[in-house]
Write a structure and sequence with these properties.
The chain has three helices and no strands. The chain has about 100 residues and is mainly α. The chain has a single domain, classed as Orthogonal Bundle (Helix Hairpins), CATH 1.10.287. Helix 1 runs antiparallel to helix 2. The longest helix is centred in the C-terminal third of the chain and has 27 residues.
Length: about 100
């Protein structure tokens, strides 16, 4: 395993553990989710160059566009919940209270 593969795998694992363990604020959960998406993007950029198969060069661009849409939706949800509940703490959000 090269250093690049190790760093991309460790960034993905750190993002997932941050998402699983640090769930106090919605913003921190979104940042951990963006970290995992960024590590997946880096992995998808490395994969075609390491296999010398350039037919998959469009996949990282699609992943980046989906990640941007996911970030915009997450920030819009965070702004909406902050306006309605007054905070972005996840324990104050109750799904049964709709």
């Amino acid at each position: 395993m090269t250093l690049i593969h190790f760093s991309f795998c460790s960034a993905f694992i750190l993002g997932l553990t941050g998402l699983a363990l640090n769930r106090s604020h919605l913003l921190s959960a979104l940042l951990c989710l963006e970290g995992t998406m960024l590590s997946l993007y880096v992995g998808l950029c490395i994969w075609p160059t390491s296999t010398m198969s350039f037919s998959f060069s469009l996949i990282p661009i699609l992943m980046l566009s989906f990640s941007a849409c996911e970030a915009a939706t997450g920030l819009a949800l965070m702004v909406a919940t902050t306006r309605t509940h007054g905070t972005d703490k996840l324990f104050s959000l109750n799904l049964l209270q709709c």
